[in-house]
Amino acid sequence: MGLKDRLGRLAAAAPAPVFVLAGRGTARLAPALDRLALDPRLRFVDSPRQANVLLLAGGAASRLLRPALRVHDQMSRPRGTVWWLPGEERSPAALRLARTLGLAAGDLVDPDRPDHADPAGGAEAVARAIVRRHRELVTGVRATEPAVLPDEEPAPWRGVGPFGQGGEGMMGGVPYGRPMAMRGPDLSDGLELDRLPVRLGPFYPPLPSGLVLDLDLQGDVIQAVTVGANPFDRPAWRGDGDRHGRDGDPFAAALTRPVPLAVLERARARHHLRWLARVLALLGLDALGRRVLGLSLACAPVTARVADAAEGNPADDLEPPRRAVEDLARRLRSRISPITPPWGLAGATRGVGRIARSRLAGLGPVARAAGLPDDARSDDPAYRALGFEPIVQRSEDAEGGDAWTRLLQRLDEAVQALDLALRAARAGDPTVGGPGVVGSAGRAIEGPRGRLIPGGDPPSARLLALVAELLEGLEWGDAVIALASLDLDLEEAGRGPLPGRTAGEREPRRPTRADRTHRSHRTRRKGEVA
Amino acid sequence: MSGVLWPHSIWLQAAALAGFVLGGIYAADLMERLLGRYVAGAGVRAGALLAGPFREAALLLSQQRSRTERPDAPAWALAPMLLAGLAAVAAGTVPLGPSAAVAGVDSGIVLFGAAMALVMVCVFLHGWSANSFAPLVGGYRFVAQALSFEMPLALVLIAAALPAESLSFGEIVRSQAGLWNVVRQPLGLPLYLVAALGVTFQGPLATPDAADLAGGTRAEVSGAALLAWRLARGAVLVAVAAVGAATFLGGWSGPWLPGPAWTVLKTLALLAVLVASRHLVARVRLERFVVVAWAVLIPLALLDVFLTGVFLL
Amino acid sequence: MSPSDLTTDLLFWLFGAGAVVSGYLVFRTDSMVRAAYWLLASFAGTGALLLLLHAEFLGLVLILMMAGEMTIMAVFMVMFMMNPAGLNPMTMVHQHKVAIAAGVIAFLGLGAVGLLGEFPERPLPETTSVDSARITADLGRELLGESMLPFETAGVALLATMIGAIALASRKGRFGTADAGSAAPEPPEEERRRREHEGSDDGGHHHHGHGHDQSHEHGHGQDHDHGHGHEHGGHG
Q1: Mean pLDDT, contiguous 10-residue spans, chain B (313 residues)
Q2: HSE-CB of A295 using CA atoms within 13 angstroms
Q3: Do A285 and B282 touch (CB under 8 A)?
Q4: How many domains does chain C have?
Q5: What residues make up the domain containing C47?
Q6: At residue C173, does pLDDT exceed 60?
Q7: Is A127 helix (H, G, I), strand (E, B) or coil?
Q8: Out of A3-17, B209-223, C97-111, C176-190, which region has the weakest mean confidence (pLDDT)?
Q9: Which of A163, A375, B98, B207 has its CA 20 to 30 A from that of C95?
């Protein structure tokens, strides 16, 4: 029909709606993902129902498979999938999954192929694959992908219970498959109100990727929360601390070999700006968030490997983003002349997500936003030579910082990081870290989330432990902002202890294949710096 | 001159009104995109910008509607249609030209208020009937928000009705022949705009469809149903802007151009303000803002009524 | 009959029957929210009848008020009742015989009043168009003239009730924050420690600080194993 054709062609010209699922190894793909987010041919949506194309970025962790398939089936037809799968993740299981989903050869994009090794890290190839898939779906050239999981009810209810609809007697139970919200005492005053049990899975967009929460909600107030198991937790990798560095984390790489200071500080600025873009999008200011995302891409060189970044880049390209970020920081915190947008950020975040200061030791910007001058860079001679002073937010009351001070803190640190990178380039490009330097004389690396101690837990794991008590009693909007202000990365938390060793320890035995199959529990090494 | 441009047949009037509303929806979408691109620092390609809304509409039409487990299907389907109907009613009360509005009742303000009150019912049904977490929370949020903003909205309109000694929008516009209400009731237009943002869940008060709920009441909606919802929302926004233009900016009065042209221009101006707030103001914390609505906005609206009464006596 | 009379009669029967039917459906539906909105539909029908009687203001105000009230009722029922959507067969109706008897008696009584009572006959004057603005103005004069005392008293009483309810429900009450519940207010930890260290004695003066003593003894008495729980979205 002519009308259908014309509608199809119009729809094909629209930006492709994409829903992104972050799998394993997205730390390397992050810069390219940001580039895709800014691409005018694509539109990242916040609900799978409104997406045409599902972008699987990274490898498949076993505990993410079923949720990913569930999200895939929740997409409305016509639906297609594009999988951005690094070469090392192409296990037989992953390829089997690709076949189950019905992916063609063009839908499996490898970021490590030589012809994709452009500065955008394969982003262009993925964008083209997505746009092509979108056009094929909308114009009907290729059929929609069928549902993968069987259409079964969330919980068995037929015939269950005395009335056959899944209830327990006259009330409760799982009528028609959904848990009935029973009454329970409210947190604040004990009034018997409804409590709805909800599980928000690993790919819920407002939550950090991979976080599973089992909530009891009354209205939109969280009455009880349990944090689910980390799906990125892979027992076989515990003990193989170098995983951190291989996944493109320059800070963890600095624990085992020297890394230029400029590279670290550029990565830190990029990280904080990326975080800010996400928070702005959560607060409804997604246009400003895109601008900040563009700034973050301008901060750091877009490479997939830390090794390439060690060559360093001329620092002249840092001056414009540094000025832009400084201007943004000034606009956000100006109390005297609130005439320039954006408005309302302080009101939306002040007082949200307070944590007692005593719990925040070594947790990077979260601690410094609470007034603790806890920064590993103060002990490093390379930083001291550049005139480094830790930035701390003054807090007015005895409780810890809140989401607003954490936002200001990260913004200030981004400005400071760009400043340090500029100074380092002019001061002869000093390096930081290395196996001998770190650990002795009490020095550690300051990552963007907290202090990285060799052999210790990554800061995300420590932050994850704070989530349950942080969220209890919070309204939903506040809960999302509070979680976002912690800057969790469940993949980092699941990688296990950091590489390197403290002074005096032997070289750890590399895990062998036998270890991987028999290891059933963590061996915890105390990451105490001497 | 208005007789030439304002047809007497009711069907042609209705068609003109529909054109006004649809044009307003398109213009509002364009303005939002334009400002969004400017704030994001991205380039603007004229062709893509102008064709953008149509392409998205075609995209939504090509998607299929999604289903959830045991929704309240009649209510879920009713919500966008009822919202569109309410927008039509609200837009119908606005006099586009001096001769009459399509539904120029003598209690125009009350009809508009009743339509806005029923918007709350629509959004709550849209959220609750999906039988899913995010839409339900979005529906709850909007109930709290809409209840808090109904009273400032009504009070501000009543204050505008006092000088006109009538509840009809036509009389209110005529009463501004000497001086627009935005000047002689300075509290009126800002309060009206804030209440309008609240009732039409736009910008900083876009809580039911928020990003922190993965889309809120529209999280489970796709395809033609989503297109209907977005069109209905746009229509309500245009109606609210048109009422604001009639009540505070003098409606059709103005030199040189014919009456309906002035109405269109003023409506577009208010639409620009309402739509721009999305990219410039962060979304509020609803629990705190409800307190602001009850404790600050209602007293201010009462003050507005009081001052207007004092100046009239 | 003239066309407008016919139209009026048709609309009357349409809205009247609609109000009765939706009123009946309030009691037949299992879902609480649907019941609330059927009641809203019934009130909307009554409001439309008032519009037909040219009482524009009253009809529209009725619809305006009922929209908010029915939504509040729906939300409260979802909050407090145990079977709001009617998915379980729990019936909320008890004492069937007494209820039926009471209903029949009330219907007979009200029906007798409606059929046999003497209602005042005050038809509108025969004019070509009805001036609803004058009717509204008459209503306003009545409200602020002869009936001022009952309406103003009711209005002020309602306003005081609303303000009182908001004051009770707001966070910072006179005796501490709402989160602290009805526990006795106690000074924050650090203030108490500071007073111990400095030895300053406030004479037992209670500080109404943040009594965030969250000792939840509530316990989760209902620990249903809800199976798969609810993932984002609908069925798999």
Answers
A1: 56 89 96 92 85 93 88 92 95 83 80 95 94 92 93 94 89 88 90 94 93 92 94 96 93 85 94 94 89 90 94 82
A2: 33
A3: yes
A4: 1
A5: 1-86
A6: no
A7: helix
A8: C176-190
A9: A163
Burial of C4: CB neighbours in 10 Å, binned 0-12, 13-18, 19+: exposed
CA triple A238-A241-A246, angle to 5 deg: 120
Determine, yes or no, domain membership for C209: no
Q: What is the dihedral of CA A375, A380, A382, A385, to 10 degrees?
A: 80
* 8 Å CB contact between B143 and C73: no
pLDDT in tens, A183-213: 888 877 778 888 888 999 899 999 999 999 9
How far is B189 from chain C, CA to nearest CA, in Å?
Answer: 22
Q: What angle do CA A302, A308, A312 make, to 5 degrees?
A: 80
Could you give the ipTM of this predicted complex?
Answer: 0.92
Please name the residues in contact with C66: beta carbons below 8 A apart, sequence gap of 6 or more: C39, C40, C43, C44, C47
Is the separation of the CB atoms in B30 and B49 below 8 Å?
yes
Cα B122 from chain centroid?
14
Determine the 3-state secondary structure of C76 from DSSP. Answer: helix
Question: Residue C190 pLDDT > 60, yes or no?
Answer: no
Q: Tell which residue, A352, A62, A21, A67, has the closest CA to residue A199.
A: A67
The first and second tokens of residue B183, run together, are 């000047």
- What's the whole-model pTM score? 0.87
CA distance B204 to B210: 10
For residue A283, CA distances in Å to A186, B81, C226 come to 28, 29, 33
Six token digits for residue A443:
């020095």
Residue intervals in chain A for CATH 3.40.50.12280? 2-138
C-alpha B189, offset from chain centre? 14
Q: Do C232 and A201 touch (CB under 8 A)?
A: yes
Q: What angle do CA A428, A429, A430 make, to 5 degrees?
A: 105
Q: Find out whether A195 and A182 touch, Cβ atoms under 8 Å.
A: yes
3-class secondary structure for chain B? CHHHHCCCCHHHHHHHHHHHHHHHHHHHHHHHHHHHHHHHCCCCCHHHHHHHHHHHHHHHHHCCCCCCCCCCHHHHHHHHHHHHHHHHHHHHCCCCCCCCCCCCCCCHHHHHHHHHHHHHHHHHHHHHCCCCHHHHHHHHHHHHHHHHHHHHHHHHHHHHHHHHCCCCHHHHHHHCCCCCHHHHCCCHHHHHHHHHHHHCCCHHHCCCCCHHHCCHHHCCCCCHHHHHHHHHHHHHHHHHHHHHHHHHCCCCCCCCCCHHHHHHHHHHHHHHHHHHHHHHECCCCHHHHHHHHHHHHHHHHHHHHHHHHHHHC
pLDDT digits (tens, 9 = 90+) for A234-245: 765 555 556 666
Q: Reduce the DSSP state of residue C171 to 3 states and report it.
A: coil
Judged by a CB distance cut-off of 8 A, whether residue B2 touches chain C is no
Smallest Cα distance from B115 to chain C, Å: 7
Q: Pick the more confident residue, A198 or A60.
A: A198
The pairing of strands A445-446 and A80-84 is unpaired
**Mutate: best of B32, B50, B59, B137, partner A, most A CBs <10 A:** B59
On whether the A2-138 domain is CATH 3.30.70.3280, my answer is no
**Given this model, what pLDDT does residue A513 score?**
52
How would you class B155 by CB atoms within 10 Å of its CB: exposed for 0-12, middle for 13-18, buried for 19 or more? buried
Å from C16 to nearest chain A CA?
36
Confidence tier at A101 by pLDDT (50, 70, 90): confident
Contact map slice: B 116-135 vs C, CB within 8 A: 117-118, 120-121, 124-125, 128, 131-134
Q: In whole angstroms, give the CA distance from residue A60 to residue C25.
A: 52
Under a CB-based contact definition with an 8 Å cutoff, are residues B286 and B208 in contact? Answer: no
Separation between Cα atoms, residue A111 and residue A28, nearest integer Å: 10
